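Render Peptidase C45 hydrolase domain-containing protein in 3D.
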Amino acid sequence: MQARARIIKCAGSPYEIGFTHGSSAADEIHGNIALYADFFQDRAKINWEQARERASAYIPLLSAKYPEILEEMKGIADGAGKGLTTEDILTLNVRSELGLTNFADGCTCISQQGSDGRIFLAQNWDWLVVNLVVLHITPKDTPLQMQFMCEAGLVGKIGLNSAGVGTLLNGILAGAQSQEKFPIHVLLRRILQFASTFDEASAIIEEYGLASTCNIMVADAKGKTGSIECSPHGSTVIPPRGETYPFVGHTNHLYATNRPLAAVDHPEDNSFARLARMEELTRHDTANGVEPSFDSIRARLCDQQGSPDSICLGKPRDKAVGMDKVTTVSTVIMELSSKVAQLTLGRPCENPPVLEWTLSGLR
């Protein structure tokens, strides 16, 4: 089974944005609720009602610091209908806090700069085959437009905004979490909606913090980039390295040398292997004078060395159940100065069609 992505354009007030999202992807949202209900039961041993109760603990924080995102979630719930509530949509949006303390998704990310200064962000997103949407959002009261890929019902994830700031995400398996800091997907949305530079994105992370552990890779159109390892204990930036085509990669483990001592993870071995392989391929391209580009980076993301636990994950077995169904669901490659993104659905090594979008010239 291969993921599909509905493209949805949303504009207006937070509620109007949410209602368009919810009404346009109602079936997909209800499908994701059913999928994550099974996920929570499998990985966290809680049912949907228990998950919703835990997610509701974030309402006081968001009401105080980001009330418009709760309004958008209410719009999503009303648009999707069938009795959904704001709490149901919030539960989808804290799926990392509820589930990834028990299981980390497997994603391979890279940021790289070319000789002309252009910055690329790229990622294989490895997860269960869920219902995806590509949201193009034009808020009424903030200057930046944004376009990103996410599970239907979520408010933020992997994408870019009209200032040329892009975001990628690696899940990290770690037990620590906090209800006094922002959930991962809400924080990603905050960056895309309000950050015009890498430094502004970093400041948002510092101001609001992360409720659970992850890595957020950020780059901006001016050429500044870094991989930001985040946890409830604080964040640490891993800068790019190398004089020719400098780059930074990340998978699903913490490796910043100066991270907070309390930030402890529990990675799978394949996370180390995938990072080492991406770095090897990148150094090989650099040594051979291969500029970073959509095509050259996609070729690296197609790598199958060590399959099935490779950069391009192997196909799940026919009778796989639960988390054994994890595969490469999508690939996103962005060039931030031109504000162009390319999305493929399915394993990139199988050469799926490329969907391209641009936010060039929009502010």
